[in-house]
Each structure stands twice: as structure tokens, then as C-alpha cells.
Design goal:
Elements (H helix, E strand, L loop, with lengths): L3 E5 L6 E5 L5 E2 L8 H6 L3 H4 L14 E8 L19 H15 L3 H11 L10 E5 L6 H8 L10 E3 L2 E7 L2
Antiparallel strand pairs: 1-2, 2-3, 4-5, 4-7, 6-7
Helix pairs in contact: 3-4
């Protein structure tokens, strides 16, 4: 049996391969393993979404997390936190800028703040939206997410849902 397993990086939010014998970790599938062997590794079904390389979902898909702050002009001005959101868009942007300053480039802080403060139900998963492709998200959000490299955090992005910080994770 292989000593390789698939794990999820807490800092990057991306899957990696870990050798339980040598304690080595790598981002790409270990050489010498077939696609079928990689898919059979412990953790592969949970973290690889059908990819043998650990690179993610189906072709053209990306993975992202976000921290959403809604405002009174959002398409649904309510959330798990507030039944009736009355803040202005400017107030929402200011709040998000405060979070942005706390986050810096820390994906761990991003996840913590998304869990505590995001107005999206994805807060329960540290803001993780999973894998998605073109045409599945609102255009402004999609354009912002696709413009990022894995591990990068966007500036404030406005969509019909509210204002977001986006962390591309895959």
C-alpha cells in the first residue's frame, strides 16, 4: 500500500500530497503513481475533486473563498447574522477595508474573519465557495476571482450581493 495521502493545506487552502513514511510533502502528484493510484489515496476523493494532480476541479474551474459584507442595496439585504441589513454600501466598504488591513496576506486570518463576519452562508466553511467555472458566479465576482493567482487576495469587489474580498485557493 502507498505511504502517500492527500491533505488540505490550512495556509493555502489547496490539496497536497504527504508521505507518511518520509514526512515529505509535495504539491504535485508523486511521480510513479498512476492516475488511478492517485485517486485511490486516502483523502483523494475529499480533496482532489477528480484531479490527479491536485490542481483542482474540472478544466477551467477555479476555487475561491470570500468575505462578503452586504448593504441595504444588496439583492438580498439579510444574512445569517442580520435579518434586515441597513448599512450603506460605503459603510460596507469601510468595514471590509478594516478586515482587509487585518488580513494583510494571511490566508489563516482571512478564513477566521470570513467565518466570523461574512454575510454569506459560506462563513460556516471559512468562506470557501468550492470549485466553480465561468458563468456560475456574478460577473463582477467571477472576473475578480479569475484575475487572481492561487493564494492571492483581491481588493474590494462589488457585486449585486454586496462587497467582497476574494481569496483564490485553486
Amino acid at each position: 500500500m502507498s505511504e502517500w495521502v492527500v491533505r488540505m493545506s490550512n495556509s493555502k487552502g489547496m490539496p497536497y500530497f504527504y508521505n507518511t513514511t518520509t514526512k515529505q510533502s509535495v504539491w504535485e502528484a508523486p511521480s510513479g503513481l498512476s492516475k488511478e493510484q492517485v485517486q485511490a489515496l486516502p483523502g483523494a476523493q475529499e480533496y482532489l475533486s477528480g484531479s490527479a494532480s491536485g490542481g483542482g476541479g474540472a478544466a477551467g474551474q477555479i476555487r475561491a473563498s470570500h468575505l462578503l459584507i452586504k448593504h441595504k442595496d444588496s439583492r438580498r439585504p439579510s444574512s445569517w447574522k442580520e435579518a434586515n441589513i441597513t448599512r450603506t454600501k460605503e459603510e460596507a466598504i469601510n468595514t471590509l477595508r478594516e478586515y482587509q488591513a487585518q488580513i494583510g496576506s494571511s490566508t489563516d486570518t482571512f478564513a477566521e474573519l470570513a467565518r466570523e463576519h461574512s454575510d454569506c452562508s459560506s462563513h460556516a466553511h471559512d468562506g470557501d465557495l468550492g470549485w466553480f467555472g465561468r458563468g456560475q458566479m456574478q460577473k463582477a465576482f467571477e472576473d475578480g476571482a479569475y484575475a487572481l493567482e492561487a493564494g492571492q487576495i483581491s481588493d474590494v469587489i462589488s457585486s449585486d450581493s454586496g462587497v467582497h474580498l476574494i481569496l483564490r485557493t485553486g
